[in-house]
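Hi all, posting the design record for the shared folder.

TITLE: backbone redesign
STEP: 1 of 1
STRUCTURE INPUT:
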């Protein structure tokens, strides 16, 4: 992939997509795969904000059954299966345990009704391309068996435990990148660090955007017939630019906090409801526990958002009130991250009850011709959201598009028909590498693995292990040469897992930064600035 704005911006695009999170990535892929000439612009790095601040799950949304959103749950469950199929190396079935107590919200029999309905709505979960992706029906564990499996759940009042399956997205940032790569394979032009600062008008219609290239510090104009605003928590801010500051539209934003700690659960993602209107999961991930999420309204400029100590403490308090020995503290946190979700509903008291539906607006109905705005949604349903966006695009451009194919073909880097056979081949082909390294690299890079391993075999130092679970230095080179990584943060947080589980140590960080500096020709000042930025990101708020 190449940043097209550095080379050629003179063509006229059918669609210009603003926003490079999972929504923009999915829309770009859907549009390009159906024959449209597409440009995708992201003001920072791809998937850097909301798409990176997830619980790393692809799920049906069990809790939405409480609000009778059966359509949303069914859509999510169908899309869960599709993502298992088209991204087999990145999305895996995973068991979830909900301890049953006598309270209404986690009563065994109340949950049983919900689980039966969940199984019915996911009737096609067995229709996976790879048999290893088939999801079992729910079942119940006795109190004794539940405590044996997960000793840290509270035994007081425990009656049993309900087990069901959803999916884990082991690296959401790379899943977002896979959508962008897929769009690029169909001819989409993409650019990160391309900030849309204004809009171009011709005869009262938007016909392009003015972009500040943050890497070259120049402005370029990109022309297009239709602009699709996929800004997520920034969607209303983009709309205000399009309306010359006159837009009064404002979306709600919900903050979600996650923390990574020492291992606290074994083989299950344990879901708990410490108080009415709240829930969180403790999820096994890379040998640690990933805990989240919170759901609290955020008021303010999303550009100024940062996780606070108070928000993290609120999550700690919830965990301590319902799980383990109640003594989890800041000292036990390896890493914390937060992000903002865009919500479409303002008729409820709290954001926890807000829908994760999405809405697609034709801004031409409000006098802003040439603009579509997408709001709301959830990671799991992004592909189908993109399909629905194309229905409006067809009307706007008055052109019949070819049928959608994105549910029928593998994403870029995910072309693997049989995972078991794939891993067997990887282990045999690269037997001189540690098996843990091969396992993690095969999952992250899938069918693109050989390109990475060519770099690893070109220089002995590129084989050096840089994470606790086996990632290697060659990934830094690969990220820069093939995946448009332009900053140290891009490399360690979004292309690799070097820092996604916390600080790997100053020696590793320095090695990674120096390797990137040679490839990107940073001077000493830039190298220090890049290191400082990552080190600040790794620190817990004070």
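Okay, here is what came back for every position:
SEQUENCE:
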């Amino acid at each position: 992939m190449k940043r097209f704005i550095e080379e050629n911006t003179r063509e006229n695009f059918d669609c210009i997509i603003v926003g490079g999170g999972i929504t923009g990535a999915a829309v770009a892929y859907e549009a390009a795969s159906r024959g449209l000439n597409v440009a995708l612009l992201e003001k920072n790095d791809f998937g850097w904000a909301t798409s990176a601040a997830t619980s790393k799950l692809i799920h049906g949304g069990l809790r939405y059954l409480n609000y009778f959103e059966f359509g949303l749950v069914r859509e999510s469950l169908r899309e869960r299966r599709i993502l298992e199929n088209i991204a087999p190396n990145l999305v895996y079935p995973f068991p979830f345990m909900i301890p049953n107590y006598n309270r209404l919200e986690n009563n065994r029999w109340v949950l049983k009704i919900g689980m039966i309905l969940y199984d019915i709505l996911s009737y096609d979960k067995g229709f996976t391309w790879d048999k290893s992706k088939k999801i079992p029906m729910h079942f119940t564990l006795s109190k004794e068996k539940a405590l044996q499996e997960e000793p840290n759940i509270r035994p007081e009042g425990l009656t049993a435990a309900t087990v069901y399956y959803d999916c884990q997205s082991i690296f959401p940032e790379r899943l977002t990148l896979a959508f962008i790569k897929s769009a690029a394979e169909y001819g989409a032009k993409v650019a990160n660090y391309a900030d849309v600062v204004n809009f171009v008008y011709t005869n009262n219609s938007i016909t392009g955007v003015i972009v500040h290239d943050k890497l070259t510090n120049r402005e370029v104009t990109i022309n297009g017939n239709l602009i699709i605003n996929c800004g997520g928590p920034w969607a209303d801010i983009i709309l205000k630019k399009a309306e010359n500051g006159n837009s009064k539209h404002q979306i709600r934003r919900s903050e979600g906090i996650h923390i990574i700690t020492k291992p606290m659960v074994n083989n299950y993602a344990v879901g708990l409801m410490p108080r009415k209107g709240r829930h969180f999961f403790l999820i096994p991930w890379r040998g640690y526990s990933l805990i989240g999420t919170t759901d609290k309204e955020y008021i303010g400029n999303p550009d100024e958002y940062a996780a606070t100590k108070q928000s993290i403490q609120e999550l700690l308090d919830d965990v301590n009130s319902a799980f383990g020995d109640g003594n989890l503290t800041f000292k036990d946190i390896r890493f914390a991250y937060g992000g903002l979700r865009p919500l479409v509903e303002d008729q409820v008291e709290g954001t926890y009850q807000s829908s994760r539906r999405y809405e697609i607006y034709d801004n031409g109905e409000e006098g802003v011709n040439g603009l579509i705005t997408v709001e709301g949604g959830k990671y799991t349903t992004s592909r189908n959201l993109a399909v629905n966006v194309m229905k409006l695009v067809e009307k706007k451009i008055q052109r019949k598009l070819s049928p959608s194919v994105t549910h029928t073909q593998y994403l870029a880097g995910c072309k693997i028909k049989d995972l078991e056979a794939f891993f067997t081949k990887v282990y045999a082909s690269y037997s001189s590498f540690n098996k843990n390294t091969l396992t993690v690299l095969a999952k992250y890079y899938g069918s693109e693995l050989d390109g990475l391993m060519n770099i690893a075999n070109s220089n002995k130092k590129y084989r050096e292990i840089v994470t606790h679970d086996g990632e290697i230095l060659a990934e830094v080179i690969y990220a820069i040469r093939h995946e448009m990584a332009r900053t140290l943060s891009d490399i360690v947080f979004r292309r690799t897992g070097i820092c996604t589980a916390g600080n790997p140590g100053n020696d590793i960080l320095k090695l990674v930064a120096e390797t990137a500096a040679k490839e990107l020709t940073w001077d000493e000042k830039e190298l220090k600035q890049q290191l400082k930025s990552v080190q600040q990101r790794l620190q817990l708020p004070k």
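COMMENT: The mean pLDDT is 94.
Let me know if anyone wants the other runs.
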